């Protein structure tokens, strides 16, 4: 390893890796890309990114001494085996979310990385978005007062497709909840702290595949704040504004388009209120004094790769998106699905 560069190999170089993470990684100042692996179409991937080492299996990529770390973006059912192989080869692991199909597999993956003393980071990249970093700063500064309620929304149109692994729980772990709602559990905990109680509704409202196409979650944080998370595979992309709403005792922050795979979106807020007396007239038509909140556009994929590479170069395990957080999110997933099946509220 060079003193200022971590050389990555990518396992599962199609899909999100091809569209977002590899282009983001190539912009990172402390990351290099030296090898790619995919079971099919790997020559196209290699040409697209100017990589000379292209493999159709994990073992050959992991045997390459030039590879310092791997980014795993394969279907979820392969994560456990591939993490174990990477750890045994002494490669640090950045793995896409969710870490594994279930908590049991996740624990085994974490144990493999600890046994071989390699770092593990999970790909919940939304906390690296410039708007979300600014929100975290404003909350920590006390600008919203005490947090009261949060709402996060992420939906898409995901019709039945042949061999789509997210549409089968045996290959993806589930559907809209594990694939998208977990992004928002992670993000909202970043803002509001640990979740205390969870209740979830899941089902198939439109799509007829085995995984759920609908999920709504109600959360209570240890602080007492409440939240809702709504994620669907059956709402057309154009119909959803992908909103994030955070309300406190002294103001609120509202965003559109910051939740997702991009660096853009818009954000506004209102602060330093909450001192007035009771408004008996409840004039909800009164114009609100929301102001635009500027933020620096940050490619979240570049930022997560830079962060992980920085941890490796410094010899310091990740504190964001680390192994403990990965297992915590999987525990939340299992509680959410259990709540949906049993129709009960569950404590964490």
Walkthrough of the structure:
There is one protein chain. With 348 residues, the protein is α/β, with parallel strands linked by helices. It has 2 domains: 6-125 and 301-318, NAD(P)-binding Rossmann-like Domain (Rossmann fold); 130-261 and 264-297, Dihydrodipicolinate Reductase, domain 2, CATH 3.30.360. It is 33% helix and 23% strand. The protein has 10 helices and 15 strands. It has helices at residues 15-26, 42-49, 58-62, 79-88, 103-115, 130-140, 169-172, 176-192, 300-314, 323-342, and strands spanning 6-11, 31-37, 53-55, 69-72, 92-95, 120-122, 147-155, 195-203, 214-221, 226-232, 243-248, 251-256, 266-270, 291-292, 346-347. Strands 14-13-12-11-7-10-9-8-15 form a 9-stranded mixed sheet. Helix 1 (15-26) links the parallel strand 1 and strand 2. Helix 1 (15-26) packs across helix 9, helix 5 packs antiparallel against helix 10 and helix 8 (176-192) crosses helix 10. The longest helix has 20 residues, at 323-342. The radius of gyration is 21 Å and the shape is globular.
Topology:
Elements: E1 6-11, H1 15-26, E2 31-37, H2 42-49, E3 53-55, H3 58-62, E4 69-72, H4 79-88, E5 92-95, H5 103-115, E6 120-122, H6 130-140, E7 147-155, H7 169-172, H8 176-192, E8 195-203, E9 214-221, E10 226-232, E11 243-248, E12 251-256, E13 266-270, E14 291-292, H9 300-314, H10 323-342, E15 346-347
Parallel strand pairs: 1-2, 1-4, 2-3, 4-5, 5-6, 7-10
Antiparallel strand pairs: 7-11, 8-9, 8-15, 9-10, 11-12, 12-13, 13-14
